[in-house]
Amino acid sequence: MERQIKLIWDFRGYDALKTAEHQEIHLKQFIQMEGLPITITGFEQINEMHAIAFIVVNDDLMRKLRDILKPHRGELYSDIA
């Protein structure tokens, strides 16, 4: 299986969760417009003042999408809980 990368956008402040949720909407729109094979997106609250939005991409798409979408950071993704 190809390595997967979680591209992450960090949001901080009182509206962080709402902003992360809205960012996911834009990420889904981009995925649909570009016809990309991406099925894992999301947002989550880290704490009261920090939330993230993310997409999970295969390694071969990571550089291209990193340069276009400019995430704040990335990490290896594993769906094993």
UniProtKB/TrEMBL annotation:
Domain of life, per UniProt, equals Bacteria
- Name the UniProt record assigns to this protein: Uncharacterized protein
Organism lineage reads as: Bacteria, Pseudomonadati, Bacteroidota, Flavobacteriia, Flavobacteriales
